[in-house]
Design a protein that fits this description.
Strand content: 25-35%
Shape: globular
Number of domains: 1
Number of strands: 6
Distance between the termini: 36 Å
Radius of gyration: 16 Å
Amino acid sequence: MFYGKSRGQRRKLKTLFHWIDELMAFVNTNRECEHFHVPCGVWLANPKTSGKVKTAFCKKWIEKTEEFIDKKPKELPFCKVVAAITYPNVHDSQIIIFYDEEYYASFWDRKGPEQIWTPVKENTSFAKERGIETELPEVGYVEEFFDEDYNTKSYIWFYGECL
């Protein structure tokens, strides 16, 4: 539970931006995918963390994805770069680089008994709501987890080379 203030938000955001700038892609191209998690703790998802800080993070995350797409090696037989921004748990976001075409196709099928992805309404845009401008395609899903102990619901917004 989050009870206290989220202190030092600007300092933590500056450090987070530095860590994001240091991410190196296309290192393990012999795997089916390579993914990068947000290099920070849960302070980013704290309800007391400023919405401006969360928006700045999302903008930087999408910019890093655009950078990875621009630097994609031409010699790879298959390569797709996708950013996944999870909301409200922004700290669970990822950048995923797919190297296997079969895994990429199966990644989008989430209709199991424990996890369901339902497409978000067509006129809804996370980027537009946050004032983030990007040329990357946007695809949104409502993610629902069902477990015997708890159920959870969140939104996942994908940017980049997604279906």
